[in-house]
Design goal:
Order of helices and strands: HEHHEHEHEHEHEEEHHEEHEEEHH
Strand content: 5-15%
Helix content: 25-40%
Radius of gyration: 23 Å
Structural class: alpha/beta
Shape: globular
């Protein structure tokens, strides 16, 4: 896979992608200029149709579902949409039988959406078992072992957000959960758009994800993939859109809250449709540029490999900064995670040099994107080398020795 930046970068003129060192590709990628066309279209539809705009807005929502189905590897998936994964996770949690099965199992490597919410749920008396995320290669097995007949659900990421490690064995975990009557929720946010994902083998699982990161959709575009048995569950957190098709009738006449079949069962309420207009245009842009899951994975492996090679060439002391070399490149997601007690300081130093990256705890995260050139990635790593040398006398001495 060659450098695609010469073809792609001109389509990101508003974000000045060709002129900036944007290594936040695992968090907030630049939006293609087509995204603005979607936002303008949303305004035009609202101005023309006022409250009748929803027919056009729902068509955009359907286009967004089709876009997500491609990246979920599930062409017939039932998909509930939400403005955040948090709201979708809440609907999922509210559908569980936590009275009969007051136990949840998760990993210590989950994003804050799960970490914080589950910690708060634990304060209300639900047992939350947190399994160490490392080693990632055995995480799925250890989660399966932690699940029991009192467990309502297992919640785990497909790619760990701090370390970029892909979690293998989700199919075996799904089978174990199915045998014990345990629900499985897979957070695929750090996979969609950078690691080919498929619900094959985990068809009984719920999958949550979104487009804020690698898919360049911006805020407000998240998705919950429902398994076939979802129609047996009744989420307590439920919005009036779940009865949208029956609004002509009096919903109070039934006596008991009713639920439709399919994705509408987990629907929310009135939302800002602008995000869907934007997302639909970005999905169209990806299709027009041939940015399919296999192509995006090839670009990611190449770019992450370039960053890793440039980091190794810095030859920094391990106690200052290091990377995981115990796994093959194919075992990582879309960003390079560097472990350092100075991660926050390095991030700030890079920002001062015009390199946008981020840090989480003791991990500095460098996220490339398809619109970045090899030269831009190299320049960013040169700045990182400068920041590392400024940190460590050992690094400075090593640099002088190599120069001599």
């Amino acid at each position: 896979m060659n450098d695609l930046s010469a073809r792609l970068a001109p389509h990101y003129a508003a974000f000045r992608a060709a002129d900036r060192l944007l290594l936040t590709g695992h968090s907030h990628q630049a939006w293609p200029d087509a995204a603005l066309d979607g936002q303008i279209e949303a305004f035009a539809d609202a101005a023309r149709d006022v409250d009748d705009k929803w027919a056009a807005a729902f068509k955009q929502a359907d286009r967004v579902r089709e876009g997500f189905r491609l990246f979920l590897g599930d062409p017939y998936a039932e998909l509930a949409l939400g403005s955040s994964t948090h709201e979708l996770v809440l609907r999922f949690l509210s559908a569980l039988d936590l009275r009969g099965r007051p136990r949840l199992v998760t990993s210590g490597g989950e994003f804050h959406t799960l970490r914080r919410q589950l910690a708060r749920v634990a304060e209300e008396g639900v047992e939350v078992v947190v399994v160490p995320p490392e080693p990632a290669g055995t995480l799925a097995v250890r989660l399966a072992e932690a699940a029991c007949d009192r467990t309502a659900a297992v919640l785990v990421s497909a790619v760990l957000f701090e370390t970029s490690r892909i979690v293998p064995g989700l199919d075996a975990l799904a089978a174990a959960c199915r045998r014990r009557g345990v629900e499985l929720l897979v957070d695929a946010y750090h996979a969609l758009g950078v690691v080919p994902f498929s619900t094959a083998g985990i068809d009984s699982a719920w999958v949550v994800g979104g487009g804020y990161k690698y898919l360049q959709l911006g805020e407000g575009n998240c998705v919950l993939r429902l398994p076939a048995h979802a129609d047996r569950l009744r989420p307590v957190v439920t919005g009036w859109y779940a009865e949208f098709a029956e609004l002509a009738d009096d919903p109070r006449a039934a006596g008991r809250v009713g639920y439709p079949v399919g994705a509408a069962r987990f629907a929310g309420a009135t939302y800002d449709p602008v995000s869907h207009y934007r997302a639909a245009r970005v999905f169209d842009f990806f299709a027009g540029q041939g940015l399919t899951p296999p192509v995006l994975r090839a670009v990611s492996l190449r770019q992450r490999g370039l960053l890793a090679a440039r980091f190794d060439a810095i030859d920094a002391p391990e106690h200052v900064i290091s990377r995981d070399r115990d796994a093959a490149p194919e075992e990582f997601g879309g960003f390079l995670a560097l472990r350092s007690p100075y991660a926050g300081r390095l991030r700030a130093g890079l920002a001062a040099q015009g390199v946008q990256a981020d840090s989480r705890g003791d991990h500095l995260r460098l996220g490339p994107a398809p619109y970045l050139s090899d030269a831009q990635l190299g320049a960013a790593m040169d700045h990182l080398a400068e920041e590392i040398r400024a940190l460590s006398p050992t690094s400075r001495a090593a640099a002088r020795t190599r120069a001599a």
